[in-house]
Amino acid sequence: MIKNSSDPHEVQLKSKISVCDGYLRVDRYRVTHQLYGGGWSQVLEREVMSRGAVVGVVLFDPRRQEVVLVEQFRIGAWAADWPDPWLLECVAGIAEPNEKPADVAVREALEEAGCAVTRLEFITRYLTTPGSSTEQVDLFCGQIDSAKVGGHHGLADEGEDIRASVWQLDEALALLNGQRICNAMTLIALQWLSLHHADLTLQWLPETADSA
User: Fold this and answer.
1) Catalytic residue among 66, 71, 158, 160, which?
2) I need a surface site. Which of 71, 81, 88, 151 has the fewest CB within 10 A?
């Protein structure tokens, strides 16, 4: 896309104050920005949740054609009166300072699902809620062996109680047609996998091309 020279591209920060610095950090900004029609906007006052970099990984066993997903209680879903706040999701976690996204994916797969990732394929990077949060996600697909996956995982000192489950690929992709998957990260990951699983299998298991 070619950017029009008249498009807005400047923002002026008028003030920033901390509103909350607990499990989540919230700052109140006062900003003004250039308008499409020229000139500047009125001063906008907005609260923004400051969130560290997040990494997600959908775990795929190309040999068995299986996907590993995790399930855990989510306070936001509960507070929103979602029918079932135990959500089925990809593995995900927050990056430590100076930790590379790929390293986070490997670490979280082991912590949340007991899976050793042997290879990673980058899917995309996106903002989760750009209207009110700084959170951005690096999303991967990770190659794993799903043979012995299952049970409960997570870090007790972080209050995690996570159940890992194995799904046949077609069953996992069929979840896209209902409301069982209700979070953007997992929807994006499974939609990507639905388009790329065949090529990914050939890439990760080239010997399958000879037997096809």
Assistant:
1) 158
2) 81
